[in-house]
Amino acid sequence: MTKILVVSGHTDLQKNSFANKIILDRLSEIMPEAEYVYLDTEYPGWTFNVEREQERLKSADVIVMQFPFFWYGVPSIMHKWMEEVFVHGFSHGSKGKALVGKKLLVSFTSGAPEEMYQTGGVQGYPVDDFLTPLKQFARACGMEWTGYVYSGGLSYASRHDDEKLRQMKEKALLHAERVAEKVRSL
Ligand SMILES: Cc1cc2nc3c(=O)[nH]c(=O)nc-3n(C[C@H](O)[C@H](O)[C@H](O)COP(=O)(O)O)c2cc1C
Question: Theoretical Cys-Cys bridge with 78: which of 74, 101, 104, 169, CB 3.0 to 4.6 Å?
């Protein structure tokens, strides 16, 4: 059976998330066979058990990185996890072959709506452009880049508007379905 590892990179999923919390709660219902790692709750001091995280990665066939877009990339806790767990001799380098052939799926949300992500638009560039470092991260580790699932318009600013909240909840639930569907297709 395909082993799926879902890693949540939100910095505060319990107290400061709307969308990622809904996505992950729904995903764990519809994809219970996956292993879920919540970096913020498992490592409140952000000191990772590198060996344990490397073992989790090694035993997975599909790795899903779930995060909110923070300054056009992964949040700081997830970046720290990348820096400290994906080290030379493990994930890359002449002897670092542990992740070769694994499939990487990136799943993320943004506050700005999708249409703002286009050349010359409010966000300056298509959303794909901001994923270049992650694509090369996958490539450098010998992982297969399988694409991404993205939902925009999941904004902090809309948290006090009931109708907006309802729409965001629906979008987050749909996002989880899209992730599960994509994972099953891999
Ligand atoms: C520190 C920080 C940086 C953010 N940077 C961006 C950004 O670069 N682009 C964007 O569209 N939204 C940005 N946002 C909005 C978040 O992406 C959005 O609130 C999040 O995806 C919603 O998920 P959540 O409810 O699980 O936190 C940022 C939010 C924070 C707190």
Answer: 74
Q: Are 74 and 37 in contact (CB under 8 A)?
A: no
The CA-based angle 85-148-82, given to 5 degrees, is: 10
Q: Does the pTM of the predicted model rise above 0.90?
A: yes
Q: How many domains does the chain have?
A: 1
Ligand 1 site: residues with CB under 6 angstroms? Answer: 10, 17-21, 68-72, 109-112, 154-156
**What backbone torsions phi and psi does residue 107 show, to the nearest 5 degrees?**
-130, 120
CB 46 within 8 A of CB 77: yes
Whether 74 and 10 have beta carbons less than 8 Å apart is answered as: no
96 CA distance to ligand 1 centroid (A)?
Answer: 33
Give phi and psi for 57, each to the nearest 5.
-65, -40
Please check whether residue 17 is in contact with residue 156, taking contact to mean a CB–CB distance below 8 angstroms.
no
- What residue's CA is closest to ligand 1, atom 4? 70
Q: Evaluate whether 150 touches 108 at the Cβ level (below 8 Å).
A: yes
pLDDT along the chain (186 residues), means of 10: 97 96 98 98 98 98 98 98 98 96 98 97 97 98 98 86 93 98 97
Residue 93: which domain range?
4-185
